[in-house]
Design brief:
The complex is a heterodimer of chains A (163) and B (31). By secondary structure, chain A is mostly helical. Chain A has five helices and no strands. Chain A has one domain. Chain A is 81% helix and 0% strand. In chain A, helix 1 packs antiparallel against helix 5 and helix 2 packs antiparallel against helix 4. The model of chain B has no long low-confidence stretch (mean pLDDT 93). The longest helix of chain B is centred in the middle third of the chain and has 23 residues. The N and C termini of chain B lie far apart (36 Å). Classes of the chains: A mainly alpha (163), B mainly alpha (31). At the A-B interface, helix 4 and helix 5 of A face helix 1 of B.
């Protein structure tokens, strides 16, 4: 049946656009905006009203993207993750996406909770959390570049790249 | 040495380099 993979692909794209779109928003827009807003005393607008909502959609879009991707791989799931012949390209994409999901839930979200005051933390803990969350987020931007290369061309167009 | 992830261009260039490395690895070792 072709309907399930087609729906999984659609959902994978929709959630993936939301996840990576918000990741790029955080890194290309919010980091610099927050710096400027802190300087003129308007940071609360971002930290109270924008960031928590963006993080909500960001972390759950990451989960939906991964599940829809796993459904799309279907019976090729293990072949992809073990980088079997013909599946190595998409497998590398899947591994990169999985590492990024780990970063979202284990490094970014728990530290953002401390930064935004959703979880109690001392000033020192907040400073550490800020650095860890920032580097994990930047790592995900870096990983998104090869991830999207292997996602876009690693399976359906693998022949084009000789993979 | 400065962490390349501290700047957006450093992050993007690192991502492109990583893409080339992973592509070479997949092509030579796994295909």
């Amino acid at each position: 049946m072709d309907l399930l993979p087609a729906l999984a692909r659609w959902l994978h794209f929709l959630a993936g656009v939301m996840w990576i779109g918000l990741l790029y928003y955080f890194n290309f827009v919010q980091v610099a905006a927050l710096k400027a807003a802190t300087a003129d005393g308007t940071a609360a607008g971002i930290t109270k009203h924008v960031a928590p909502r963006a993080l909500l959609y960001f972390r759950w879009a990451a989960v939906v993207t991964w599940i829809a991707g796993a459904a799309l791989l279907g019976n090729q799931f293990l072949n992809a993750f073990t980088l079997s012949k013909g599946m190595a390209g998409i497998g590398v994409g899947a591994w990169l996406g999985t590492i990024m999901l780990f970063n979202v839930w284990v490094l970014i979200w728990p530290n953002q909770q401390k930064i935004l005051g959703l979880k109690p933390a001392t000033d020192e803990e907040k400073a550490t959390a800020r650095r860890v969350a920032f580097l994990a987020s930047r790592t995900n931007v870096m990983l998104s570049i090869p991830m999207l290369f292997f996602m876009a061309g690693g399976w359906s167009h693998r022949g084009t790249f000789g993979l | 040495m400065k962490n390349p992830l501290d700047s957006l261009w450093g992050t993007i260039i690192s991502g492109v380099i990583l893409t080339a490395i992973l592509y070479a690895v997949v092509k030579s070792l796994l295909v």
